[in-house]
Amino acid sequence: MRDITREAEQFVSGAGDGLLHVFVPHATAGLALIETGAGSDDDLLSAIDDLLPAQDKWRHRHGSPGHGRDHVLPAWIPPYASLPVIDGRIALGTWQSICLVDPNGDNPTRQVRFSFLAG
């Protein structure tokens, strides 16, 4: 899990009002709006392990053992988010951060695409 809020803020800095769309073009990744640093990020990762255990039960079998669960993750944590931007600032809640979530250790390189729709 990686907090990408700072990168998103830099992208919209000075952009005015509109919508920021964040997209992760990978089959095993999602975007979560979550509090970080107070244990919630670790709680999310534990919940993923509980709900989608990295066992050899998955039909999708290429990659490391249990990798099939990584391909199911985006059904619960979608690979996109659209966020309001007001006066060039993302209108997140007090404790919200934008986090890339990807338990797939087989491919550590990920892209995140930002786009802005001016209002």
From TrEMBL:
InterPro entries: UPF0047_YjbQ-like, YjbQ-like_sf. Belongs to the UPF0047 family. This is Secondary thiamine-phosphate synthase enzyme. It comes from Mangrovihabitans endophyticus.
